[in-house]
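Researcher: I need the complex structure. Ligand is TNX. Inputs:
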Amino acid sequence: MLVFVLAFSSPALADPTVPVVPLPREIVPGACTYTLQGGVTVQAHDTKAQPIATMLSEYLRTHAPSSGASPAGPNPAIGLSDTANDPQLGVEGYRLTIGGEGISIAANAPAGLFYGMQTLEQLLPATPAASDVLRCVAITDWPAYRWRGIHLDVSRHFFPVSVVEQYIDLAARYKLNVFHWHLTDDQGWRIQLLKYPKLTEIGDCRDGTQVGGEGSTATDGKRYCGYYTQDQIREVVAYAKARFVTVVPEIDMPGHSDAAIAAYPWLSCDGKQHAVRELWGVSGEVMCPTERTFGFINDEIGELTKLFPGPYIHIGGDEVVTDAWQASPFVHALMAREHITKYSDVQGYFERRVIAMVRAHGKQVIGWDDILSGGVPSGTTLMVWDDLSTAAKGAKKGDDAVINPDGPLYFDAAQGDQDFEPLSIGGLTTLEMVYDYDPMPTGLTPQQQAHIIGAQGDVWAEYIPTSDHLFYMLMPRELALAELCWTPRSQMDWFDFLGRIGPQLTRMEDEGLHFRIPDVQFSVAGAVALVDPHPLINETDLGVSASTGSVAVDLFEPMSSTMIHYTIDGSMPTAKSPAYQGTFDVPTGQNTTIAAIAVTSDGRVSAPAFLKLIVNGGPWVLPGSGK
Ligand code: TNX
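Model: Output:
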């Protein structure tokens, strides 16, 4: 695992001055301290700042010290002003000042105050003490990207409004500002549309769900249903808006639309009745490009436009299987009429019609990069997951792109060795892989770079049946996503990040959130070299020299509230194995595997991490030297 290799070359993690995620742009520590006491008041300088002041007061009511006003006099206030008039800060930036006498947040707009508030909340201890002594600091901060997105697939598994709101809350806490709601797919239609009731009478239920991993054809035979009413959608949209999160609804079409076709078979070319899909994978069903289908889509967009005030509608467009079009006399006639010679270009025709409708409703279009098949008009924003070269090509033509590659930003992939992870779609996307991912394509001019409007993490829910499992897949990877969306790449540092995530996870632990506990990290003084330049997942192999007699090993876990337990005898560590107390020596007389786990205060156990010390192993490769 790459983590360990790097840990090997960078043993000590400095205490971060400001344990904030994502890392703010400018941090100027002051010499003084400020003591936050109970009953502190939050003053909004005008009515637009008032909702943020109310939210902050609410937070402080439960998180500020419970003791009353200081005997020395009235508590100094926290002041919020959204009239900073500082062009550098833009709409989302803020200036947070903790001085000896009080705290102020200044911004140009309420969004900036909201983000300043998030930073302040992270500077307070997760658990209130009798008084919170804060170090004075001046923070000036604004985001690298304007689309900082997190996606949720509610079709494969359905998550109730309360979970969706918790999901949005966490996103906003880490300054993400787009919630991409994948509302429809083959396995279930999840949004009530008034004109088409069968979508949520038929399309929202399947008669079974795949059991087992990729490629399994077994199902559990249990009926599985769920959808959001329009009232619930409005509630979620308002909830998100109060947290400066824009909801982008996605209706996937013309592929991934089995559930819609099950409800209204005339949407397909053969018109045959069939059931909502129970297996994962790509279905062969596809919408037929008839006028009746386009009428349906137009009505649908009309209802979406009323429900979602944000500027974008996501039209899907991924993984279109053209077999049904190839078998359709209607499609053949259409191709002749429109001078289309390739079936893949029928998708282009379909997308152009849909794009025109979305625009006629006053909305901007975003779609998966597959919509390029057959050509789309300029001004269409691409959500790039598959063919990453499309982002730079689009940017050069002046089209916007959001980067969310299958792989580094797909949070349905496993986070470590699958032997120690819950069933997933497979693959590997570790926390460090997310952190290392730079969404900006190379070779673009600054003007072209401005068209890369941001990045997004996707949570496809085939193998995510419960909310605990959902938060396990999300966290802590969302923290790395948030940082790569907000913090300039040149200021990002993996070890510094590892030092900052502990307090975030402790806060989540207090909230009862089921995040993944980060792997224990190793550092070894006196190790000679890395044996395997491509370490195994969860395992790093280090060469040691027998002549040194022993090496000193340190273990580190980002969550300081955990206890590390380890073994050096080849057995699997448990909570009963020796607890790590500090640096220990491992003799180099024989090959030794050090295995370590972290255990939280409520007894949750991390996946094991292994460090293999190989005596006189070789050929040795020095990290970074390439030799
Ligand atoms: C591909 S990404 C899909 C989804 C799956 C996902 C699984 C995309 C636009 N389509 O339908 O859930 O892979 O990782």
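Model: Summary of the prediction. Residues 343-360 form the longest helix (18 residues).
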